[in-house]
Each structure stands twice: as C-alpha cells, then as structure tokens.
Fold:
Amino acid sequence: MPTKRQRPSGSWEFIVRRKGVLPRPVSMTFEREEEGDNYCARLEALLDRGIVPPELLNQKPDIATIRDALREYLVNVAVAESDKPVLSALAGKLGSIELRTINYSWAESWVRSMKHEEQLAPSTIRHYVGSLARCFDHLTRLPNSTFVTNPLRLLPKRYATYNDADAAVLRATAPDGALVQVPVDEWRDRRLAPDEEKAIRLILDGHKPVGRQRALELRWQGALELLFDLAIETGMRMREMYTLGLEQIDIERRTIFLDKTKNGDKRQVPLTSVALAALERYRRQVEAGERGMEGWQFDGGRLLPWWNGDDSPIMLKKITALLSRQYARIFDAAGCEDFGFHDLRHEATSRIFERTQLSDLQIAKITGHKDPRMLSRYANLRGSDLAQLLW
Structure:
C-alpha cells in the first residue's frame, strides 16, 4: 500500500514502494486524495503483475533543483521575513543547479566563488549560506528524500573569513596598479556616551539644537520618546516595538510578549523599572492629549501611532524607513551624526552585560539573538568580573 500525507498547501503526496520492481520509491502529488487513491490502485495492480509504467522508470523528482527546493521550503515552512529577500536572490543565482550535484565540494566551491568572483563581505556570505542551509535542513527531514546530508553544515568555522590564500587570489586577479581591499568583518560597536544621551533627550523634549534658531517639529513627540526609552532599556528591534499591541504588554508581570520576531520565534522581554515608568508616562500623555499625542487613543489596540496593522513587507519597510529618517534628524540635531537607531540595540545589550550577572544564554533569550555566539563580542564588558575569580 502506498503511504500518503496531506501537505500544508492542501495537495496530497503519495509514495509507492515496491522492492525488486521499482528502482526507487516513487513520489506523486495530487490535488485531491480520491484522485491519488484511484491512480495508486491502478498502479499497484500493474506492479503486482511485474509491469512498471515507462514514465516511472525515468521519473524526475518533484524537487530536482535548488529552485524547486526553495519553492518547497517557502510553501511549507514559516520562513523569517528577513530570510525571504535572501532566498529570492539565491533562486536567481543558483536556481538551476540540480540537487544531485550538491556535495561538500560544491559547498566549498560556492563559498570560494562568493569570495574570489563577487568579493562579498563575510557577513553577506554567512547570510547566504545560513539561509540556504536552513532550506537544505528542511529537505533532509522530508520523507524519502534523496537529500540526506546537508553539506553546508560541514563547512569549517570562519569559512566566510578571507584568509591569506583568498587575499592572494584577489591581488592576482586585480587590474595592474589597482588597490586591493580584502573584505573584512566590520562589527558596529558604537556606544552612546552619557552626554550624548542627555543631548538626545533634550531634543526629544523640544529644546533647540545648538546653532539653530528653533526646535525640531516632532509629530507624535511622546511616542518618539517612548520608542527611544524602550529601545535603550530592552534591546528590542524597531519593528518589534512599533507593531506592539496593548495585549502584548503585561505590566503586573513586567513583561512584553513578542508573538513573532525577525527570526520567526516568540520571545518574552522583561521590563526594567525605567521602561515601566516610560510606559506609564506615555499612557498619561495619550489620555491627556499631551506631548503631541492629540488625536491618538490607542486605536485598534495598538501602542504606537505609526502602524495601521498592515503587516505586508512593503508597509513595514515604509514605516521602518520613516522612523529611521526621523531619528536620524534627532540624532543629528543632538550632535550624534554617526549614531543610528539600531545602535540603541547594541547599547541596550551592552548595558545588560554591564549591569547584571545574567548568563549569555539568558541575555540571548531577552534580546533575541539567535546564536548566543553573536554575544561573544560583549564579553570584554565583564573583564573586571573575570579578574575577581582569580587568586
């Protein structure tokens, strides 16, 4: 008897096995279960007589190329929004490559081409490899998949880092006299100095920037202040904050419950006393129509006024760009021209390391860093603590 399962898309997959008759299990997809049952019944009758339909002997797998694999992955897995543009780019670059040719040698060759031919930054290489590796992981879990081992998971540590041999290739292939710059990892380690934070808060409070005749016109001033406070106290990403609903905030438990994050996971974010005070201050401003919050009454149960509930990628990007520009104006007016809103996430994470004794894993659960190893660059903030453990 064939095995069958219904896919999330609603179609039905049937797998027929017949040892000694069929060279390999045969997978077929039907729109309706009844259609598959009838076809497989006729096929089983033929196989009982030792007859194999010619089309099955040369059957092409449903998932034959990387493009097929990406399509299967996107249809059946809740992929993080941040991965979708990367996967789309991979479909264009690698889509026609057949899965039967994918092995460790191919993985090495692909990484080598991204370094030597495209000269991509190490972080970009890791994004490409990581996204495709998660797709391949899905393939290995499919029933009767011929894709058993994920070669991308066999790549060594620091595979994306340019070594001396890579640098030599870049120099050898560069035009005569051209200056060769080997791509390197660039960690953004911008911290917020106390006087800079004070200057930003003055601008948010309506003070005139130094050297200017008037203060910035800030629509939804109270909301801008709250977003700044939440970012620096919790380490949440901008999108996670501006899409918050009131039901996600539990004041008594001092926790914000994030339903879906950049990585596609749920997360609980504890609130400091400063964050709680900021939320309470904002609530009073909204109720009284103060600090530019006239006309906003938590419409639709939303905390902040910029998002209307449309979670399409285009709308979310539009709001992110709008707020990024707004804060760029604020930081520029405060004399922090090289500071960006996302730097507040780094600042918040640094403060958690400095002010608590939480483990790296505990902090990763708060900040939403998928791989705790990404927090290793914060270890120097506790150098003095390590000294206390020595004799």
